[in-house]
Specification:
9 helices; 226 residues; single chain; mainly alpha; 75% helix
Length: 226
């Protein structure tokens, strides 16, 4: 009975950590759209053409919104995956999780900075892109460190034994976004501020290069459920 109560307490504490994290992700992803305000027609003719023109001016902000929505959604999905293997908590896990959440909370701000200065007249400015790229890099590194921690033999929060290939791939995936954004930033700085940003379109290809063994992945999920 004592062991059962101990396990229930552990599960309860892990669930608290997950629920708190989910709330932070939800708030951050909601704040993305709150930063986009309806267009004003002050000083313009009250026509549909004027309204359409002002809506068109919001394109950079909507691009930033959809891009950051997808990235936060991706990190939430990865967070959901990694915590599926966790059976206990520790001060280090809480700290690493908070680092990830700090990076997620910063996303609405860095998105607004980036989208404000992404129009053609500001495209040569690298400062806004640097802020956004550093934010994404912090997210990726925190995710990477969480994977490093839970897959390390002898860690107190996860008793699952992971295949080497799975561990390697999980770590590589965590580093894809930091690599992609920092590479894009470097190309923007060294060569061309416009073409460097197009490197971000290679991100899906990077993910597709990393392939897990389907049998190993299925076996891990089955063990995690038990």
């Amino acid at each position: 009975m004592h062991d059962l109560l101990t396990e229930e307490r552990k599960r309860f504490q892990v669930d608290r950590l997950i629920l708190f994290s989910d709330a932070v992700f939800a708030i951050a992803i909601t704040l993305l759209i709150i930063e986009i305000h309806p267009p004003s027609l002050d000083g313009l003719p009250k026509t549909d053409a004027s309204f359409a023109a002002r809506m068109s001016d919001l394109r950079p902000q909507f691009i930033g919104f959809f891009m950051s929505f997808a990235l936060i959604g991706l990190y939430w999905s990865k967070h959901h995956s990694v915590f599926g293997y966790i059976t206990d908590y520790s001060p280090k896990l809480i700290f690493l999780n908070l680092v990830l959440l700090v990076a997620i909370v910063l996303m609405p701000f860095s998105t607004q900075v980036y989208s404000t200065y992404v129009s053609p007249e500001y495209v040569q400015l690298l400062g806004p892109f640097l802020i956004y790229s550093l934010n994404i890099t912090l997210c990726g590194l925190a995710n990477f460190l969480i994977w490093v921690y839970i897959t390390r033999p002898g860690n107190p929060v996860c008793k699952q034994v992971f295949p080497k290939r799975f561990v390697r791939n999980a770590k590589l995936r965590a580093l894809i976004l930091p690599f992609a954004f920092m590479s894009s930033l470097f190309v923007c700085w060294a060569f061309n501020a416009v073409w460097g940003r197009y490197l971000l379109f290679l991100i899906p290809a990077y993910f597709r290069l990393i392939k897990d063994d389907p049998k190993e992945k299925k076996a891990l999920k089955a063990k995690a459920k038990h």
